[in-house]
DNA sequence: GCTTGACTCTCCTCCTACTGGAGGCCGTAC
DNA sequence: GTACGGCCTCCAGTAGGAGGAGAGTCAAGC
């Protein structure tokens, strides 16, 4: 017979835990001195303790363990317990996988935005953009409603998204109310048109080409100034601007944080005919 | 201003939870009626509530959320919180992955054993065994000490194990005390000799071939009877038995459960020269 | 002004699997 | 005599709520 302290050393279970297991009826001492209340464990209990430790490592609850220990003598229903446990664990696993992915995405987005912020000159530049696969929703109304479009794409093609949101503007002039635009998200290869073609989300290749580009830092209602600047640049050089023009949301109100509008970063792109 | 019930509907947070968040100082109502104690939330709190929900979905603790919410106004330390959180989540993810794997392994072993139990005829059979890659520990002593050998292999090559444990017996006769045997575990391709060759664990190909085989059901100390049976069969047919002979532990005392010795299943294999 | 039913309040307990600590009993060694 | 180690019970706390009791409050209908 072991005293609780000795048994604790033998089984690697803390004394507190042994007392707790006794209270819960999971691992009952062989004998309890009715005078002193001292617990004594027979040698055979070591095996039970080992078993409990193993099952706890597999994240079984104490209630399950108690059941397993009692039904264990009978027969072979053990497999069922393990299968149920596997289900439980798989569930948690999936949860954490999702969380981990989301966290990774947020972190890398934030990092990219930070790099872009550092490298930005806020001067008009000329560069080449590649063509890319996009999913887009054509809308008419206020620009501020574009969020609904992004949400719709996210819902249908969420797992294909592979870059920053952009907006295609089809109007020749600035319109407050009935603007024609398209909310777009870049897609990974493999994204395919899903809808029946009721005109909601279309997946297609967006052509690239030579363009003038300007980074705008600040809230969206100050975009006008930057548009003036880039337009002046293009006109000065006699560039012919192709519709639709593009806005790329390098850093805006994210999924989690709305962030500070003064730190929003938007790239304006005018594709030009050469 | 919303009452707690209205705010609950707007934010999809249970009333209980809102009260709890108030108590914890995470989401404090805009105003509390000092007479009635009624909580009232301004519209601006909806955004905060949404943010808290998102962060909870990412498994941040309430304490973290409280900190994030307060430091959020200042600036950009947010990334650090997310990185720490990712670490935490990765840890849990790894834990559950390990558990899930172990559970899968136990379940499939148990299933296999059950199938073997059903299909078993307990008659001597002739069959062909394939050659396989094994890790083995040569030992001298009692058979019952073989557990130490398996443990040693498990420690060094645990992740390569891909089948049932087996025992090679090098003696010509049955020995109680100074038996010569080797505890072996089948290895996946890719397992390579690790040790410096002090003679502990060796990894090598174990040749296959034609053999006579008998399934023994019951405790190990009753193996003798089955050995008698298979030996009689081989002698009768004039087969020449090759050393070492083999025992394959189809079902024995598992990692978790010792199980009922009466249900242990062991295959005896005698390779024969043709 | 009164009643009724829906809301809301505080306070308590419960969940899991322990951990930490206070205060006290028992036996032994010095 | 006392210091020490081992053991006991009981209480509190952890994270993030859920469930419920009993009492007060609000708004609408009569």
> What is the count of β-strands of chain A?
12
What structural class do the secondary elements of chain A suggest?
A: alpha+beta
Oligomerization state: homodimer
Instruction: Kindly report the CATH topology of the largest domain in chain A.
Output: Multidrug-efflux Transporter 1 Regulator Bmrr, Chain A
Structure, described:
Two copies of one chain form a homodimer. Chain A is α+β, with helices and mostly antiparallel strands and 274 residues long. The first copy, chain A, folds into three domains: 2-75, Multidrug-efflux Transporter Regulator, Chain: A, Domain 2 (Orthogonal Bundle), CATH 1.10.1660; 81-119; 120-273, Multidrug-efflux Transporter 1 Regulator Bmrr, Chain A (Alpha-Beta Barrel). The first copy, chain A, is built from seven helices and twelve strands. Chain A has helices spanning 4-11, 15-24, 45-57, 62-71, 78-119, 146-157, 223-236; strands spanning 2-3, 31-32, 39-41, 125-129, 132-141, 166-169, 179-186, 201-206, 209-217, 240-241, 245-251, 265-273. The relative contact order of chain A is 0.10. Chain B binds a DNA duplex (30 and 30 nucleotides) through helix 2.
